[in-house]
Amino acid sequence: MARGGFPGMGGGNMQQMVRQMQQMQQKIEKIQEEIGETEFSASTGGGAVTVVVNGKKEVKSIVLSPECVDPDDIEMLQDLILSAVNEAMRIADNTMQEEMAKVTGGLPIGF
């Protein structure tokens, strides 16, 4: 075994790998912070319902157009809200995954 490392790897290579992992961790933390503050929106029903969430998956706002509020069809409104929330969350998740893949080179690190 090479001194200070694994077979076939000098000690300098191991130190370099540790530095690279630390840099990657710093980039990941920065991306998580930035995306956490980013807002993502989705609309359903031709704009009848618009939902805004942040990267922390917190719903920031729900906007309903007056035309979509029909007291005789509450189920439709509920479905529109649910669809808009789910779509906004999906957009936030996809953005996080895409940005993490840029940093990790596609390695499955579990974010």
Structural class: alpha+beta
Main sheet specs = 3 strands, antiparallel
Query: β content, as a range?
Result: 15-25%
Strand/helix succession: HEEEH
Q: Radius of gyration, rounded?
A: 22 Å
Distance between the termini: 34 Å
**Overall mean pLDDT score?**
86
How many strands?
Answer: 3
What is the helix tally?
Answer: 2
Helix fraction by DSSP (H/I, runs of at least 4): 40-55%
Polypeptide structure, described:
The protein is built from two helices and three strands. The two termini are about 35 Å apart. By secondary structure, the chain is α+β, with helices and mostly antiparallel strands.
Describe the secondary-structure layout:
Blueprint: H1 11-37, E1 39-44, E2 49-54, E3 59-64, H2 74-104
Antiparallel strand pairs: 1-2, 2-3
Helix pairs in contact: 1-2
Properties at a glance:
111 residues; alpha+beta; 3-stranded antiparallel β-sheet
Q: In a few lines, what is going on in this structure?
A:
This protein has 111 residues and is an alpha+beta fold.
